[in-house]
Sequence to fold (92 residues):
Amino acid sequence: LTALRPPRPNPFTASTELSFDTPGNGRRVVIRVCDVAGRLVRTLYDGRPPAGRHSVGWDGRAESGVPVASGVYLVNLDSGGFRRTRKVVRLR
Fold:
């Protein structure tokens, strides 16, 4: 089963870790951070992972490398029609 676990820690100041499970069926997994308006902040993962649990960190920076403002962000996992969203709070 594909799953996106809650971010830890949450809220966070410096970084947070996002864990996800995948059945390893060759499906592409994309994990993106968006703001509450749905705008892309950063793509954290885009690939076809093997079966098992995986994790990716987010250092609170946008694609450009600039630290994002304090606030609520949405972490979206998309994989072959499966979509899961988790909220994460950034504190500065």
The longest strand covers residues 71-79. The CA atoms of residues 6 and 86 lie 7 Å apart. The chain has a mean pLDDT of 95. Strands lie at 3-4, 16-22, 29-35, 40-47, 52-58, 71-79, 82-90.
